[in-house]
Amino acid sequence: MALHFDVLIIGSGLAGQSAALRLAPTCTVGLISKRTLEDSASAWAQGGIAAVLDSQDSVEAHIQDTFTAGAYLNDPKATRFVIENGRRAIEWLIDQGVPFTRDQGDYHLTREGGHSARRVIHVADATGLAVQETLTRSVRQHPNITVLEHHIAIDLITGDKLGLPENRCYGAYVLDNISGEVKTISASNTLIATGGAGKVYLYTTNPDTSTGDGIAMAWRAGCRVANMEFIQFHPTCLYHPQAKSFLISEAVRGEGGILRLPDGTRFMPEHDARAELAPRDVVARAIDFEMKKRGLDCVYLDITHKPAEFLKEHFPNILARCLELGIDITKEPIPVVPAAHYTCGGIVTNLNARTDLPGLYAAGEASCTGLHGANRLASNSLLECIVYSEAAVNDILAQPKIEPPKLPEWDASRVTDPDEEIVISHNWDELRRFMWGFVGIVRTTKRLQRARHRIHLLSKEINDFYKNFRVSNDLIELRNLVVTADLIVRCALKRHESRGLHFSRDYPDTLSKAKNTVLRRSKRRTTRKIPA
Q1: N or C end: fewer C-beta atoms under 10 angstroms in the chain?
Q2: 204 with 255, same domain?
């Protein structure tokens, strides 16, 4: 089956949906969602969106906080671009109907780790969900947006793959997970908005859909990828056997939450003068250190000194979920552990969200814009999604429409149904376990080399499976995960220092000059470098 759109958007989180709504007045848009529109990492974001909205705050202060958190690896132009457009991005969301929390008439702004001021606008403790639900209602109603739920992109279709003289992106092959049919979707322009790769780790705050699909597809298409070693581990994921991937928002610490050992001792002041309000990389390493030193399964986040009414008003969802599990956060501390949370690196893009491949754009967590540097500042992620999705839309609308050539249908004539699908689940489990053990919060060169060796063996096995058997959602995700894992390890091995989220026991010092870790595929005639 063949489909055509002016713009194909792969991924239905905040970046994807906001781009679709901006494009829809003048373009036909195909929006691909692996599950439903409501299922995305954006919807799981609790804390809020950082922007300069208070007269006592300033763009320069927000920029400085972002640089400090990012260990000065941040791109100055990208950082200023996002933060200067912050207020306008929030105003756009308000115009869409997002019901941000108010306090005595004004919008309530909270403070999170690494911020020098209250600048995080939010919807109680479920900001991402509220934003997603608001946009989803509009997306579903727009006649120019075709929503393809339960679809997963297999690979991008490029001029190189078709043997054409011009190498650009012409669309993608996409698997319909309900019917099992592979669709050929052509488009004048394609936007990758697939999110990050948290599921490459055994423990993560991400939904099951965060398997690095867009990053892997862009890499296979010849795009540069950068800074993949910087995987942010959120310090406070709820530790409970029935609480899969449930995040305890940064805002709990922002509102006075204290991290304690099982005996009640507070430990963060010994690790950093900012204590619980230190950036996430600092807090995650401190928790990891205390757990390993003392053989602990978890530490505890204590917010019991705040009035119960305050907690009910500001953290209703966290309060309710914990109560379901027998934890009353008004009376007892919350057991927490670090977990993989955010991919700071990704597909290299410029200020227009262009990748190296003409006709291909990237926005959100799948991209590497330079905003986050070596560590994302809390609540800068949703802001980046809105600002860069708009940048992509503006650039797309400024370009003449390219009519794609007739694209070949997906060829499944030489594959068979899988004989042993257990291989996929075993490989998936093995990959996530050794990534957690060897490429986690604290790293060594020896562990990274061991991981690289295992990735090499797994890659061969997975690629053989992919070539010979009919594609499935699990196989596509596993293929993308192993590519993403390889990119993370390769970047980590290239960085001979400790900076931000990458901490190496073999290279504990930080170099005087911050440099990006950029990976390029072996040189074929693939892509041209994007202009600045």
Answers
A1: C
A2: no
> 258-308: per-residue pLDDT in tens?
999 999 999 999 999 999 999 888 899 999 999 989 999 999 999 999 999
Q: Per-residue DSSP letters for 478-492?
A: HHHHHHHHHHHHHHH
Q: How far is CA 131 from CA 50, 136, 137, 511, in A?
A: 14, 8, 10, 40
The residue range of the domain holding 350 is 2-230+344-398
Cβ–Cβ contacts within 10 Å for residue 405, how many?
13
**Statement to judge: residues 426 and 390 lie in one domain:** no
The answer to whether the beta carbons of residues 504 and 439 sit under 8 Å apart is: no
Cα 63 from Cα 279, distance rounded (Å)? 15
Phi, psi angles (nearest 5°) of residue 273:
-65, -25
Residue 316's alpha-carbon distances to 39, 123, 304, 426, in angstroms, are: 21, 11, 14, 38
User: Which residue in 310, 304, 167, 299 sits closest to 236, CA to CA?
Assistant: 299
What span, in angstroms and rounded, lies between the C-alpha atoms of 214 and 355?
12
Domain-embedded: residue 499: yes
Residue-wise pLDDT for 395-429, tens only, equals 999 999 899 999 999 988 888 887 777 889 999 99
For tokens 């754009």, what's the residue?
361
Alpha-carbon distance 277 to 285, whole Å? Answer: 14
Tokens describing residue 176: 């319909």
Query: What is the C-alpha separation between 532 and 352, in angstroms, rounded?
Result: 9
- 280 flagged as catalytic: yes
Estimate to the nearest angstrom the gap between the alpha carbon of 431 and the chain centroid.
19
Place of tokens 């109603």: 141
Query: Do 61 and 210 belong together in one domain?
Result: yes
Domain match, 175 and 138 both: yes
Q: In CATH, what number is assigned to the domain containing residue 289?
A: 3.90.700.10
Longest dimension (CA), the chain: 68
Residue from 280, 285, 354, 454 carrying the catalytic annotation: 280
| 158 beta partners | 169
The answer to whether residues 326 and 360 belong to one domain is: no
Do 59 and 38 share a structural domain?
yes
The helix/strand count (H/E) of the chain reads as: 16, 22
